[in-house]
């Protein structure tokens, strides 16, 4: 089901993360602290329950969910969102909705990297995260935000 995602993934660098966090309404001080964080992403599966933990110096978060079932989530920047995660062609697709806004997070494994595309539907930024497993220090984790078309 989600075996390709299981493991510990380390963030090694970020590019323009501030643009995305600003777009979703994160305050200046929190954006600056979050931009310096290098969290580990730990993904595990127990039966039909998937758990994604983010552990870092800024804040720890954890979500546990079943594919296709909506759940309440408190994001690292303390937004209360409704999330649903599905598996589509080997890609974990998460949609977060709050206050008339939404973000889509797509996680996929590519060449031993966890690539995470984040799109704020209410804005114009695309974020790309590439975590690496901690078992291979040569793998890169990057977060990139670039202009994307407004939907």
Instruction: Give the second-level CATH assignment, the architecture.
Output: Beta Barrel
Shape label? globular
- How many β-strands, per DSSP? 12
Helix content: 10-25%
Low-confidence stretches: 134-151
CATH fold-level name: Lipocalin
Mean pLDDT: 78
Per CATH, the superfamily is Calycin beta-barrel core domain
Radius of gyration based on Cα positions: 14 Å
Q: What top-tier CATH class fits best?
A: Mainly Beta
Count of distinct structural domains: 1
Sheet/helix structural class: mainly beta
Largest sheet: 7 strands, antiparallel
Instruction: Name the strands of the widest sheet in spatial order.
Output: 5-6-7-8-9-10-12
Q: Spell out the helices and strands N to C.
A: EHHEEEEEEEEEEE
How far apart lie the N and C ends?
A: 31 Å
Oligomer class:
single chain
Q: Give the amount of beta strand, in percent.
A: over 45%
Number of helices: 2
GO molecular function: lipid binding
Domain Lipocalin/cytosolic fatty-acid binding: 6-115
Subcellular location: Cytoplasm
Organism: Nyctereutes procyonoides (Raccoon dog)
